[in-house]
Specification:
two-stranded antiparallel ribbon, two-stranded antiparallel sheet, mainly alpha
Length: about 150
């Protein structure tokens, strides 16, 4: 077999229809991955942004720039999921409510007690002093009764 015959054979080999199918298959897979990137970005952005516009914007960025767009998105995306932010806000509100209410926790056992309780109903820890004169509840560190001006 001479050289030209050999080259001819090689070329014929690459002219087989299987190559075309393989290339089509590869292109198809690339397109699927590309679209998966776009979809993933859209979903991730929607979980992190309140606005749909921002999610669509980032999906378009990835659609146009693909890998580059994805990298830019990963750098610039908001660090937290909305759900986490909402959950934290809820927790803060709950704490605030507890602070605003007339409840506090017993320094000894941690159970919820009212501010005007003299003694913890759970562990019997003394929570307040009693004024020696008017018997009103006083905080431990008060030197004088604010109701009757008697020094304690
Ligand atoms: Zn207690
Ligand atoms: Zn008093």
């Amino acid at each position: 077999m001479d050289l030209f015959g050999y080259v001819d054979n090689v070329l014929n080999f690459f002219r087989l229809p299987i190559w075309r199918y393989l290339i089509y298959g590869a292109i198809f897979i690339l397109i699927v991955i590309w679209l998966a990137f776009v979809y993933w970005t859209f979903r991730d952005a929607k979980l992190r942004n309140t606005s749909l516009v921002a999610a669509v914007f980032w999906a378009l960025v990835v659609l146009v720039f693909n890998f580059l767009g994805l990298i830019i998105y990963l750098i610039l995306r908001p660090p937290e999921y909305i759900e986490d932010v909402l959950e934290r806000d809820l927790e803060i509100k709950r704490m605030q409510l507890l602070l605003d209410s007339d409840l506090s926790s017993c320094p000894s056992c941690g159970n919820e007690v009212k501010h005007d309780f003299m003694i913890c109903p759970y562990c019997r820890k003394k929570l307040k002093n009693t004024c020696i004169s008017c018997k009103k509840p006083l905080e431990f560190n008060w030197k004088v009764c604010p109701y009757c001006k008697t020094a304690q």
